[in-house]
Design a protein that fits this description.
Radius of gyration: 24 Å
CATH class of the largest domain: Alpha Beta
Number of domains: 3
Distance between the termini: 76 Å
Length: 475
């Protein structure tokens, strides 16, 4: 029986009503539902797989477990530099996978308890399909809601002619399911996902070729950071091809290998590897939820929303990867909370995406917040930047990791802090200070004169800010 016929027999389905229903239990969905409950509304979450969504099960968390292992291995391999003898170092990939599952399962259990036990949010298992703007079919249930928040996330984008088969041509979901690492891998796409996997595989001894069509890898970041990361990967043995593009219809598979043809430096270059990872971005998962039964409009493959994440349909809101912009879990969480507050009539302030921190968890890491110099100039600011190397930073020398940059962008007339761009060890832990500075509309002088403990990596950030206002020992 098709869905329309089934719904015509009203006695055969259960009807539940809520103030707010989130479709998807990733960071955006559960943040919206929890905030709605905190504001006195009834809420439920519809989830077709596991609580936590892509970030917990297929993205942020498992990949960072892998990267932590790779960094640990790299550190042990150079333990002799610290006076520590370490012999017979090797990777136990099965142990890595077991630890990945252990970490994910621990977070999954904790998150499930917070959602269902602490906040009393019902999680409805199944695939949601809009029957109307205020009704969702989920299995044998009809869910009615005054407000519905679409938080369905995203999936890896494909290249026509290079569709993943899960064996030789992979996407990021497939990589996390491999039973053993390949001896060689070609990675198409040098954004955050591609660069992180390039860093991981390089550190565990896989032969890596990273192919990026833009002039620098991590192309959404400051060019200095992309160049520095490219040099770092190359110094560790990876082949980094920028301003390069794969010709999909020239791909060959033979003898268990994949051969790519790459347009590079005016010639056609052959790249052969055991596996190919396609990491060219992500696209919204919205094609199977019945949006045709609503007034929701799309814009460039993502759901169109306003500043409060309201769609063109009065009953429907959307957050996270489904709306595009910055496809980051912490962004989705902030968007979910704002949407819930707007639903409750709280009148929240719109999210300023220029104060959202961004991190690429390579080795060394890339972290940033705010604008680059060029972006600031395009916005009409009198922008200037100052940078300092980590080569003279005491803690970087102690760690034996001096490959790094701290760069501050500021308005040379007002002194406003406009952006911070970092490359180095554990800079993911430093960028929060800069994000707070952006949130508080701090000046470069305030960031520079705030006392940073010694010895720490954070001193480099303070010293770069000091240079911007003509003070400090490196003036």
């Amino acid at each position: 029986m098709d869905q329309a016929a089934w719904f015509s027999r009203s006695s055969e389905y259960i009807v539940d009503e809520f103030d707010v229903v989130a479709i998807g239990s990733g960071t955006g969905g559960y943040s919206a539902a929890i905030r709605a409950r905190q504001l006195g509304l009834t809420a439920a979450i519809v989830e077709k797989e596991k609580i936590g969504g892509t970030c917990l099960h297929k993205g942020c968390i498992p990949t960072k477990v892998w990267l932590e292992t790779a960094e640990t291995m790299a550190r042990v391999l150079r333990a002799g530099d610290f006076g520590v003898r370490a012999e017979g170092v090797s990777l136990d990939f099965s142990k890595l996978v077991a630890r990945q599952h252990e970490v994910v399962d621990t977070i999954h259990k904790s998150l499930s308890s917070v959602i269902q036990n602490k906040h009393k949010i019902e999680v409805i298992q199944g695939e949601a399909h809009f029957r109307s703007s205020s009704e969702i079919a989920v299995g044998d249930r009809l869910i009615k809601a005054r407000h519905i928040v679409i938080a369905t996330g995203s999936k890896p984008k494909q290249i026509p002619g290079l569709e993943p088969d899960g064996t030789r041509i992979l996407d990021s979901d497939h990589v996390l399911k491999i039973e053993s690492p390949p001896q060689s891998i070609a990675i198409i796409g040098g954004g955050a996902v591609g660069s992180e996997f390039a860093s991981f595989f390089t550190d565990i001894g896989t032969e890596v070729t990273l192919i990026e069509m833009m002039p620098t890898i991590v192309p959404l970041e400051d060019a200095d950071l992309g160049k520095a990361l490219g040099r770092s990967l190359a110094s560790r043995g990876a082949a980094v091809l920028t301003s390069a593009s794969v010709i999909p219809d020239r791909t060959r598979t033979y003898d268990g290998k994949v051969e790519l043809t790459v347009a590079y430096e005016g010639e056609e270059k052959r790249v052969t590897a055991d596996a190919v990872l396609v990491a060219v971005g992500r696209e919204a998962v919205v094609d199977v939820i019945g949006l045709e039964n609503t007034a929701v409009e799309m814009d460039g493959g993502f759901i169109k929303i306003d500043d409060s994440y309201h769609t063109d349909d009065p009953s429907i809101w959307a957050v996270g990867d489904a709306i595009g912009n910055l496809l980051l879990a912490h962004v989705a969480g902030a968007e979910g909370m704002i949407a819930a507050e707007a639903i409750a009539g709280e009148g929240p302030e719109p999210l300023d995406y220029n104060r959202v921190p961004r991190v690429t968890y390579t080795r060394p890491q890339v972290a940033s917040v705010g604008m680059t110099v060029d972006q600031a100039k395009d916005a009409g600011r009198h922008a200037k930047s100052q940078r300092i190397s980590l080569r003279t930073n005491a803690m970087a020398l102690i760690h034996g990791e001096t490959d790094g940059i701290a760069k501050v962008v500021f308005d040379r007339e007002s002194g406003d802090l406009l952006g911070v761009h970092l490359f180095g060890p554990n800079v993911s832990e430093l960028i929060a200070e800069a994000a707070l500075g952006r949130f508080l509309e701090a000046s470069a002088w305030e960031l520079g004169t705030s006392i940073h403990p010694h010895p720490t990596l954070s001193e480099a950030l303070g010293e770069a800010a000091q240079l911007s206002v003509g003070i400090g020992i490196y003036r």
